[in-house]
Amino acid sequence: MKRVLHRGSCYCERIRFEVEAPAVIEALDCNCSICRMTGFLHLIVPAARFRLLQGAEYLSDYRFNTGVARHRFCKVCGVKAFYIPRSHPDGVDVNVRCLDRANIESMNITPFDDAQRKASPAAIAHLSRDPSN
Question: Could you tell me the pTM of the whole model?
Answer without folding.
Answer: 0.82
